[in-house]
Specification:
The complex is a heterotrimer of chains A (396), B (217) and C (506). Chain A has 15 helices and two strands. Chain A is mainly alpha-helical and 396 residues long. In chain A, strand 1 and strand 2 form a beta hairpin. Chain A is globular, with a radius of gyration of 24 Å. Chain B has a domain of 80 residues: NADH-ubiquinone/plastoquinone oxidoreductase chain 6, subunit NuoJ (Four Helix Bundle (Hemerythrin (Met), subunit A)), CATH 1.20.120. Chain B is an all-alpha fold. Chain C is an all-alpha fold. Chain C has one domain. Chain C is built from 19 helices and two strands. In chain C, helix 11 packs antiparallel against helix 12, helix 13 packs antiparallel against helix 16 and helix 13 runs antiparallel to helix 18. Chain C starts with 17 loop residues before the first helix and ends in a 14-residue tail after the last helix. The chains are: A mainly alpha (396), B mainly alpha (217), C mainly alpha (506). Chains in contact: A-B, A-C, B-C.
Chain lengths: 396, 217, 506
């Protein structure tokens, strides 16, 4: 064996490949279950029965649907821009899967002399990787809509690019607050920060999750996550009452299945990120039976709770109007996000000698002053008086 | 070693995509090729030991700027094939010649000025990062270069003000004033319609025959 | 929460940056007040802007006797008298521009609160670039001032000419920025630093490795290419031929007060940085870049002067004359001596005050918006309005370089600097170009004084403030022509050179 080949750490590579395969398989199985879970849960809320034929409680329904879609006829519109039309479904699904690479599913374990993290890669810029993949997710929608060459998909994709870019800003601000507070960009580091418990008597059992310490950031993140995944009430790009099926109107068969899977994949990813950043990640009580499994159990349980919230909202809230959606993103989410980032910066930067309560009071007053000062600007106030009386001719 | 493998995979991809970007007739295809180039560059940054730059390149260029490009292309509907007719005769050959000259000049200057490395560079992670790329970068950015960092915010404010200023048309702003077909009887004409000396091409100025820049010579 | 490791930072000596801080602060205040009080008439914001500029001027003047370190804030900002001098010139220009703008916007009905904020930001960019001691700061300041000026150029968006001017200015400006950035990257690649003094030190060591320690570069070739690219970036901004294409279109299309502001401000700011970068950072390469600048200077003077003759539009004519003046200033830069730098500083100060007032008078002659810009509209102006006609005549004489004015002194100064550096042929070309240029300046004076007006044009309606705004520069033009020593005495001390004479062994 040549020295170059000998210098490669084959075990490490093998472990990496195994991790990728195991996590991918776990996610795929979970994905199938989530689709079934949503259909069942929504059916319950609408007092229907839902899928109940394929397998026990209809749990195999997703598989059956997959087989059906696989065998369906492919229809490609004549107006389609073929290469882009074919890339779009992939571009939709891949970023969601890639984002999962930095989610820790458990603590590090030692196998064959290697300390192996229970995540594909503990990137030093993990949280930025999440943002990067979130910002790429829009391509699938945009390209699908454009390449179909027909009107409804195009409108859907123009809507979605505006919507997703707008809410990415809000999402980014939520994440920035968490990073500021945690002082690290790595996902494992952020989980580690949440391992501490409250020092208040009577609450010592409660872990200091970012959910409590960063509640506004959590709200911002979750709302932005709904928009990023194009889920109701923010599913304007595929609003069936307005745009048939939006950006994927012209897709059928397996290509449609890709979009369908991508939506759920995105949902799982944003839920996992929410769990990791705000709900303490994989942490939870570890009982002395099969100790290595408990982190995974807690993680999946928390993700399932988050996904239930997604389903619940879908079954409850009506779709927003498009202009209201954009106004909400820019005029409410982003100002709140900015103020909260400022407040977090204040909390982090104030010297510890101030103590928690005094620091909190100072920051609180600061936030209040900001809101009082900028509130009128944000709300828009009375519209500006027109410069001159309305004139004839081309008006803007 | 992995750097070298990645380099020989990424370099051809980025160059081919760059050519594709320039040569594609369709604006959307051009944009997609550019995204591929950005991506391969991003991965090259990662291979060279700069994960922060890698992620930021994806977020900023691939994720934000190019999405906005596509958005504008789609919104304006300028995604039709572009005319390749030359407006100024011989311009393409001149551009090619000058471009090659520039390439030769810069290559020669780099060769003379710092030399072109033929062996692997030192390990960036050890030399510069000291183990943590983000921390090393923060050290540079918030130490020696903190003032440029702050001044950039002024630049961004100006850009934001400009966008808002030019995108927002207020009610009652009215139409263009210096076009021949502007509605007559504007309350306060800023300029006499058609310019004050209608025949002289020199003073008809920029709103005249819309020639290329400098054609007034 | 993990306590973040405290990062070291350079001592926060913000004193030398105080004029910019005041300007940017005033700009933010203007924006905030405009947002909270919509529907204001603009008079209040204009006076606030004026106050901000005056305050920045006081802050700058106080820096004249700065006793702290010369390089502050991580070597990014130079606290030298060179920057103070140029800042004061720019702030004077900006103050005049505020008065003119208020007059113009109120009459044309195009006022929007953002205008004054942009004016303040542009001024901040201009003053910042004069104090930048690092290529990155030069670039950022250049971008701040350019971006603000693109927007101000297109401010009358209802006039297509304004929008088109902004578009052309923006596109070509973006190209020039790209060249500048490329040059910046190559300069860093060549020397391993973006600090101007650092670049000079390394180049000096490479050329004459006598000092005990330093980084030896194989050859200064890459630095030369970098200097060329940076030079292209500057040449665009100061409109040196062949990078002057945008100048006539942008100057003509922009609202006239904006033209007044940018014709003076950009030229001063960009030349200040040009001089600093070339004499400090690339000082060791002076013998290499000199011949290039000599050729560019000659070309600029000739092309600018000749093309100005063909113009019938006054704004366009002044634009071409401003191209020619860039050539005259470049003559002093090309000399590459301390004397050349001094004379260029004198010329820039004189020229800035002259051109801002000249465009101011053009604006007042227009009465409202963009009217009466043709040569024919100036017929008999001196009879209709002796003040405007006489003022413009003095300014034109100064630009032509006729003796009792400051322009004459400035021209003699830059010519003598070039002669002493041994550039006889260049000075010969410059003199010939001056003669050509005198033709179109004098033609306008002839039109104003010796032609009968075609129609009884409306009165120019200037106010006391605008009379002061154009009258004081006219007075200064005459005063500096009679007593140039006032300014030359200030410039005589070596401390007014970039970094206190860093590049000249002083």
């Amino acid at each position: 064996m040549s020295p170059v080949l000998a210098s490669i750490d084959w075990t490490a590579w093998l472990l990496l490949i195994v991790r990728v395969i195991v996590i991918f398989a776990l996610v795929m199985v979970y994905l199938v279950l989530v689709i079934w879970f949503e259909r069942k849960a929504v059916a319950d809320m609408q007092t229907r029965i839902g899928p109940n034929r394929a397998g026990p409680f209809g749990v195999l329904q997703t598989i059956a649907d997959g087989v059906k879609l696989l065998l369906k006829e492919e229809i490609i519109p004549e107006t389609a821009d073929l290469p882009v039309y074919l890339i779009a479904p992939l571009a939709s699904a891949v970023p969601a899967l890639l984002a999962f690479a930095v989610i820790p599913l458990g603590p590090s374990v030692t196998i064959a002399g290697h300390t192996v993290p229970f995540q594909i890669s503990d990137l030093s810029v993990g949280i930025l990787w999440i943002l990067a993949m979130a910002s790429l997710a829009v391509y699938g929608v945009v390209l699908a809509g454009w390449s179909s060459g027909t009107n409804y998909p195009l409108i859907g994709s123009v809507r979605s690019s505006a919507q997703m870019i707008s809410y990415e800003v809000g999402m980014g601000l939520g994440l920035v607050a968490v990073v500021l507070y945690a002082g690290t960009l790595t996902m494992s580091g952020i989980v580690a920060v949440q391992a501490r418990h409250f020092g208040v008597p009577g609450l010592t059992w409660l872990p200091k999750w970012n959910l409590f310490m960063q509640f506004p950031a959590f709200l911002i993140y979750v709302v932005a996550a709904f928009a990023e995944t194009n889920r109701p009430p923010f599913d304007l790009p595929e609003a069936e009452t307005e745009l048939v099926a939006g950006y994927h109107t012209e897709y059928s068969g397996m290509k449609f299945a890709m979009f369908y899977l991508a939506e759920y994949m995105h949902m799982i990813t944003v839920s996992s990120v929410a769990v990791t950043l705000f709900l303490g990640g994989w942490r939870g009580p570890i009982f002395p039976v099969v100790r290595w499994l408990w982190p995974l159990v807690w993680f999946v349980a928390k993700v399932t709770v988050m996904i239930f919230v997604f389903i619940w909202v879908r079954a409850t809230l009506p779709r927003m109007r498009y202009d209201k959606l954009m106004a909400f993103g820019w005029k409410v989410m982003i100002p709140i996000g900015l103020v909260w980032v400022l407040a977090t910066g204040g909390i982090v930067a104030l010297p510890p000698a101030y103590g928690a309560w005094r620091a909190g009071a100072i920051v609180g007053f600061g936030v209040l002053a900001l809101i009082l000062l900028l509130g009128p600007v944000i709300r828009g106030g009375p519209a500006r008086a027109p410069v001159e009386a309305p004139t004839r001719g081309v008006s803007g | 070693m992995p750097q070298l493998v990645l380099f020989w995979i990424l370099a051809p991809i980025s160059i081919v995509a760059a050519f594709g970007m320039v040569l594609a007739r369709n604006a959307v295809h051009s944009a997609l090729f550019l995204i591929v180039t950005f991506f391969s560059l991003a991965v090259a940054f990662l291979a060279l030991g700069s994960p922060f730059l890698f992620v930021v390149q994806i977020i900023v260029y691939a994720g934000a700027i190019m999405v906005l490009f596509l958005f504008v292309i789609m919104l304006l509907g300028v995604d039709r094939e572009e005319s390749m007719r030359e407006r100024i005769a011989g311009q393409r050959w001149m551009a090619l010649l000058l471009g090659l000259g520039l390439l030769a000049e810069v290559t020669a200057a780099v060769r003379l000025g710092i030399g072109i490395r033929t062996r692997a560079a030192g390990d960036f992670n050890v030399l510069v990062n000291h183990g943590d790329n983000v921390r090393a970068l923060a050290g540079v950015l918030f130490n020696g270069y903190f003032l440029p960092f702050e001044v950039t915010s002024v630049l961004l404010i100006v850009a934001a003000v400009g966008v808002i200023l030019h995108a927002r048309r207020r009610h009652g702003d009215g139409g263009p004033l210096d076009r021949a077909d502007a509605p007559p009887g504007e309350p306060l004409p800023l300029e006499e319609p058609g310019g004050s000396t209608p025949v002289d091409p020199e003073s008809a100025g920029v709103s005249g025959a819309a020639g290329p820049v400098g054609a007034a010579r | 929460m993990i306590p973040a490791a405290t990062l070291p930072h350079p001592p926060l000596v913000f004193g030398p940056l105080s004029p910019e801080l005041v300007l940017v602060g005033a700009g933010l205040l203007v924006m905030l007040i405009d947002a909270l009080r919509p529907g204001n008439t603009g008079r209040f914001l204009a006076s606030l802007t004026f106050a901000g500029i005056v305050a920045a001027g006081i802050a700058a003047a106080l820096l004249w006797n700065w006793h702290g370190p010369t390089l502050v804030l991580g070597g990014m900002i130079a606290a030298d008298r060179y920057s103070v001098f140029f800042r004061l010139v720019i702030l004077v220009v900006a103050a005049i521009a505020v008065v003119l703008s208020q007059h113009y916007l109120e009459r044309s009905g195009e006022y929007r609160g953002e205008y004054y904020a942009l004016l303040l930001f542009a001024t901040a960019g201009m003053t910042l670039i004069t104090a930048s001691a690092d290529l990155i700061m030069v670039f950022l300041a250049l971008e701040i001032l350019s971006l603000s000026l693109y927007l101000m150029t297109g401010f009358s968006f209802r006039r297509l000419a304004s929008a088109e001017a902004a578009m052309k200015y923006f596109l070509l400006g973006a190209f020039s920025s790209a060249f500048f950035l490329f040059g910046l990257a190559l300069a860093y690649g060549a020397t391993g630093t973006t600090n101007l003094a650092g670049i000079a030190t390394r180049l000096l060591f490479t050329l004459a490795p006598t000092q005990p320690r330093g980084v030896l570069l194989p050859s200064p070739a890459l630095a030369l290419v970098a200097a060329a690219f940076l030079g292209i970036g500057f040449a665009f901004k100061v409109s040196v031929v062949p990078f002057h294409m945008w100048t006539p279109d942008a100057y003509q299309g922009a609202p006239t007060p904006v033209t007044a502001f940018m014709s003076a401000g950009t030229k001063v700011a960009a030349f200040a940085a040009f001089l600093r970068v070339y004499t400090v950072a690339f000082g060791p390469l002076t013998n290499d870049w000199r011949p290039i600048l000599v050729v560019l200077a000659a070309l600029t003077m000739v092309v600018g002067s000749v093309l100005a003759i063909a113009q019938r539009d006054v704004k366009r004519m002044l634009a071409y004359s401003s191209v020619a003046h860039a050539g005259f200033i470049l003559t002093a830069v090309a000399a590459g001596t301390a004397e050349g730098v001094r004379d260029a500083m004198f010329y820039l100060a004189v020229y800035a005050v002259t051109i801002v007032a000249a465009f101011g008078i053009v604006m007042l002659v227009s009465v409202r918006g963009e009217r009466n810009l043709s040569l024919d509209d100036y017929r008999g102006l001196a009879r209709r309005s002796p003040f405007l006609g006489g003022g413009l005549a003095v300014l034109l004489l100064s630009m032509a370089g006729i003796p009792p004015t400051s322009g004459f002194v400035a021209k003699v100064a830059v010519f003598s600097a070039a002669v002493r550096a041994g550039f006889w042929p260049l000075v010969l070309v410059a003199v010939l170009a001056s003669v050509v240029a005198a033709f179109f300046y004098l033609r306008l004076i002839v039109v104003m004084y010796m032609r009968e007006p075609e129609v009884a044009a409306a009165p120019a309606g200037e106010t006391v403030l605008t009379r002061l705004a154009v009258g004081l520069p006219v007075a200064a033009t005459v005063l500096l022509g009679v007593l140039p020593g006032v300014l030359f005495d200030v410039l005589a001390h070596p401390s007014v050179l970039p970094l206190g004479g860093f590049g000249f062994g002083l």
